[in-house]
Write a structure and sequence with these properties.
324 residues, 9-stranded mixed β-sheet, alpha/beta
């Protein structure tokens, strides 16, 4: 999933999401329980003026942050006041540190550890031209259905699967097994493909075949095209809605396209924001969308607008997690 690129939009004053915020006499997501499964990673985030290999930038801004699609989405859900459990896998030396970061956002962390490998990591480098990222899935790639307590699945109203490290390890069979575990209770299931590179590595046809049982899919434009082999987003949505009943395609500054079977795609514009860092904005969008959609699964346009408001907040922070 992706949200706006590095080009800043005009500054604005987006509405601040608050825990339990009343909407039309209701509290969006109130009484709903979310289970997020996927990546929790260590991030090294670099902002530089360098434009070529061999350049030394002594004034680069380098920050270490906890990142990962699942951790990001879970913490934004917690920041919004939702009841959230998170299942992830890290290296044995990093369990407490990541549990603390997750708990500070009001999320119950169920962090499995791996004594044979390290915590997964991402190095993200951005300059005025854009961003490039390198990742090592490490422990996240070993996350399996055995790490997901069945009682958490049974109690959940929505189970969200996210993270290129988790989804990319083990191929389509493991994706299918994770979806099947998510479907073993009453919950609706959402999935973020997280990376076009992962889609290509797994194989588009196999990846699509593993989505049986998913209720909502959150691909970026690039991921949607990679999944379907089509040349336009409209054609990609048509193909994806043959598999998944609700497809939410994020398209950077062009906003969001909502796809449902037999309907023309619905476009929802972004919420203007001052861009500090784009990393994690798509994960924040998913959190805002899911919290609203949990209460009212019919008004998907309203859920997408809520998602863009939360994403606008995330764009204002390095690393994309909420300020806790």
């Amino acid at each position: 999933m992706s949200m706006p690129s590095e080009r800043p939009a005009a500054p604005s004053r987006p509405e601040t999401p608050r825990a339990g915020r009343a909407v039309a006499g209701r509290r969006r997501g109130a009484g709903k329980r979310f289970l997020v499964i996927g990546d929790v990673l260590d991030g090294v985030l670099v902002q530089t003026t360098a434009r070529s290999m061999g350049t030394h930038d002594p004034a680069a801004v380098i920050r270490h942050r906890p990142v990962g699609a699942a951790g990001n989405t879970a913490t934004w859900l917690g920041w919004l006041g939702a009841e959230v459990d998170l299942v992830a896998r890290v290296g044995v030396d990093d369990v407490y540190r990541h549990e603390r970061a997750i708990a500070d956002a009001g999320v119950r962390a169920h962090i499995r550890y791996d004594a044979r490998t390290a915590t997964g990591a991402v190095v993200s480098v951005r300059n005025d031209d854009g961003r490039t990222a390198m990742s090592d899935p490490a422990a996240s790639a070993a996350l399996s259905v055995d790490d997901i307590p069945l009682d958490l699945v049974v109690r959940a109203d929505i189970v969200h699967l996210a993270g290129s490290a988790m989804l990319g390890g083990g191929g389509a069979d493991r994706i299918a097994s994770l979806v099947a575990r998510a479907r073993s209770g009453k919950a609706r299931v959402s999935l973020d493909p997280s990376s076009a590179a992962v889609v290509r590595a797994v194989g588009a046809s196999d990846f699509l075949g593993a989505l049986d049982g998913v209720d909502v899919l959150f691909p970026s434009e690039q991921e949607a095209l990679a999944l379907t082999g089509t040349s336009t987003v409209g054609d990609a949505i048509t193909a994806l809605t043959e598999r998944v009943p609700l497809v939410v395609v994020t398209m950077g500054h062009e906003g969001v396209l909502l796809g449902r079977p037999g309907r023309s795609p619905q476009r929802v514009p972004i919420t203007p924001a001052t861009v500090v860092d784009t990393l994690g904005a798509g994960d924040a969008f998913a959190a805002g969308f899911l919290r609203a959609w949990a209460t009212d699964p019919v008004r998907v346009g309203a859920a997408a607008r809520e998602g863009t408001r939360v994403a606008a907040r995330a764009l204002g922070f390095v690393g994309g997690r909420p300020p806790v």
